[in-house]
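User: For a reading group we're discussing how well predicted structures match intuition. Take ORC1-type DNA replication protein. Before you show the prediction, I'll give you the sequence so everyone sees exactly what went in.
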Amino acid sequence: MGMFRRDHLVFANAKPLDDSYEPEDIRKRDQELAKYQRALQPIIDNRPTSNIFLYGKTGTGKTVATKFMLSHLENDAADYDDVDLATIWVSCENLSSSYQVAIALVNEIRRKQDKDRISTTGYSQQRVFDILYEELDALNGTIIIVLDEIDNIGQSDDILYGLPRARSNGYVENIRPVIVGISNDFQFRDNLSPKVKDTLAEKEILFPPYDANQLISILEPRADKAFHDGILESDVVPLCAAFAAQDSGSARQAIRLLREAGELAQSNDDETVSEWHVREAQDELEKNQLYEGMQELTIQGHAVLCALAFHQAMNEVPVRSRTLYERYMNICNQFDADSVSERRVRDHLSDLSMLGLITVYERNEGLSAGRYHEYELDVPLRAVLNVLRSTNRFEGIADTIKDNVKEQ
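Assistant: Thanks. Here is the predicted 3D structure of ORC1-type DNA replication protein, as structure tokens, for the group to look at:
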């Protein structure tokens, strides 16, 4: 027998445990789907349609709900001769500016038409926008433009100003663009420029974290399809749901935990998947998530994390952002890197909080000091320093911090 062999004992069909799996129905999101349906209904009625923004932490069903609703919308629109509808979907995961988003939109339209893509560099932003308007106007009817993880563009929000006004400004004549923005950052809209806020005129749909019972309802039909009968012990699905509910309320996290537990049982040649496998899988996923989250940060994100690690090492936490910003500036000066504004540092702190790396405390001292936030690490300092030491730029600073750790 070789090193690799096909398993016939644990998994019957692992596809329902894959991130790309699209379920036949969306569970425990009835209110959100009803709001979504009302927001999209004007398209069928051939009426002006508001832009739609979905907010919620990762794994709360925003993307899968959007795919579900747009699939139904496209099928139903086909029944009406006077409704023309097209959808363009772009993930902004690795896009940090309106320029990059516009390029991605142009190339997605051209990909569908088997046309040559344009270069990602060499154009002015206005020229890219002009090309985008030309490509859009060659289509007809309502064009739904889905921008997944739109918060990655930060304050470079010109695309959100230009697209909603494209028709009124005469840039397009034949189409009505509708933006569907999907964001993990509840404060994304607050950080937009005033002109963009006034232009968007969007409907907002909030996706709260799932609780344990909701996650059980989501996991059970997937587990029934994914595993052979009798493989899962009775406490496996509830425990996966409980772990995910306590941490982030993420269905994606609960599903990955269930899959990891199954793979662990498979690798051990165990006859059933038990509570032990879930707990072992949880430990492994937590470790991987922690390191991946920190390693994927930008240079500025690492610099902010490094500044907070310094205060954590000196037992000076929780720390206010203005104090943290001074340390951040010192760190940037040490390796001769460009620094960003204090407001942008607060944005990076929000990102770190969303990743579960730090804890944010809101303080309110009334008229004397008003409201402000304080921050501290929510993960072991040693783990943070190990990640920082693995990057050439921060290795020396991380060693210095490690040498000056005060007893907690």
